[in-house]
Amino acid sequence: MINRELWKKSIVYQIYTRSFMDSNHDGIGDIQGIISKLDYVKDLGVNVIWLSPVYASPNDDNGYDISDYYSINPEYGTMQDMDKLIDEAMKRGIRIIMDLVINHTSDEHPWFIESKNPKSIYRDYYIWRDKPNNWTSFFSGSAWDQIGDSYYLHLFSKKQPDLNWNNPNVMKEIQGVIKFWLDKGIYGFRCDVINVIFKSSLDNGKKRLVLTGREFYHSQEGCHEILRTLRREVLDHYDCFTVGETVMVNTKEANDLILPERNELDMVFGFEHMEVDQINNKWFKTKFRPKKLIKVLTKWQQEVYWNANYLSNHDQPRSVSRFGDDQKYRIESAKALATLNLTLKGTPYIYQGEEIGMTNGDFKSLDEYMDIETHRIYALAIKLKFPKWYRMKMIRKTSRDNARTPMQWDENGGFSKEKPWLKTNQNTKFINAKESVSNPDSILNHYKSLISIRKENDILVDGSFEPLYTKHGLFIFKRILANEAIITILNLTKKAKKMPYLFHGKIILSNYKRENLTNEYLMPYESILVYQEGQK
Ligand code: TEU
Ligand code: CA
């Protein structure tokens, strides 16, 4: 019998291949590059890597548009390289989960090319209609495009046509894909936009500012059925886990996807905490207030069976620039955020570069951005007659390229000998892995300490979550297991704050070299872990 819940102990590191390490000097990160940095990843202490898509793809959306699920994008290497990566990672006690993008394929996938012919057996692999409905896409504009006399649905770019999950052949094909990769020894999947794959109707939707039509595809019963089938037919026969990327879900909808008795997914990435600094949608940012973040996280901790904890990924701004202070308190705040992410209940996900406190990109003009979403939104903003300074402000804060700048390995960048596909941040001069490895007080070393504390203390895995104090930008919570506990004390503001209570116990980690708990004040972005024994 496979112990399905071993993944609860996992700590995951997300690698965005294109921006991680370039081995052959073409400016594009690749699989051999990852292999060359596996010791770095191992030293961090993680035991799982989540690899963003490396499949064959025309790269309209950086690999989230797959043209062949069974081959590797030549820019990234070959299938031999991939096998080697799986093998070399395994030798270091690291297993790999892949991105599984099954809401859509690339329009250059042979299935889609065939399906343009109305008589083809592949026609029904996608969603073709004589007339479009009023649905809008995630990247703005209509969710339909025309070829010949027909229209096809694409919730993302027009080069990402949606698969038709009402077609049993699609189910069979995808089962084949999943088996193929699990047989290679991978440890599971991060399932892209998994809660929108099933469309229960193609009627016109209620008009909305964003995503008109979503009531017909968001977390439908049909989606739950698909997930149960994939689990029963394939996933349950392997030692693996799945994490769903689930847009717009609340805690109830999250549980409906992950409770063990449902047999669907193992955990999901919620988005509610990514929405605390916006009005309506991510393009309209408001000032970040820690209070809201703390409130949402507390709710998810209390209500959701098992969380996939993250503060950043390849779609989001850098966590230190967004929730911390990437200037004066960059080091302190990055450490506080790390302490938060690694001591909450759930499986922690660290996004490449987060462990050295990388900041948002320093792009100067529109042409320095590469992301399709950024360009589409910029074009929409022109249409809406937003002034230029405002358009630039919108994308500067929210562009997904903020998190996609090349990994900063040393003071010269160190990612590639060629000009990288996306501009390296100037601050690589002082924010880089080389400096972080050698400096005992670095953010990286703080991550390493947190990870080893987590590995040595099941309290941080299995312990309960009890909020103690959640006001004024302070987040203090306790994890309790049997008669032991760990308290996390966080000041998520740039002001010194009075300690609300006097805590007792042994300090096991501090980002200010604190030696005792008697000082009444918490410094800006101070974070402390306190171990307590003999609890009831
Ligand atoms: O993202 C889905 C998603 O809803 C958003 O996070 C998205 O990035 C966008 O910002 C919405 O405004 C996933 C992938 O993570 C993303 O990289 C892909 O572009 C997308 O799916 C399509 O596959
Ligand atoms: Ca390369």
Describe this structure as you would to a colleague.
By secondary structure, this protein is of the alpha/beta class. It has three domains: 340 residues, TIM Barrel (Alpha-Beta Barrel), CATH 3.20.20; 35 residues, no CATH class; 70 residues, Sandwich (Immunoglobulin-like), CATH 2.60.40.1180. It is 28% helix and 18% strand. A hairpin with a 4-residue loop joins strand 16 and strand 17. It is globular and about 75 Å long. 1-O-alpha-D-glucopyranosyl-D-fructose (TEU) binds next to loops. Calcium ion (CA) binds next to loops.
Give a concise summary:
28% of the residues lie in helices and 18% in strands.
Characterize the biggest β-sheet.
8 strands, parallel
Low-confidence region ranges: none
Spatial extent as radius of gyration = 23 Å
Question: How many domains is the backbone divided into?
Answer: 3
Beta-strand percent range:
15-25%
User: In CATH terms, what is the fold-level topology of the largest domain?
Assistant: TIM Barrel
CATH superfamily of the largest domain: Glycosidases
> Which structural class fits the helix and strand makeup?
alpha/beta
CATH class of the largest domain: Alpha Beta
Please tell me what the overall shape is. Answer: globular
- Strand order, sheet with most strands: 11-10-9-5-2-1-15-14
Number of helices: 15
For the secondary structure, the number of strands is 22
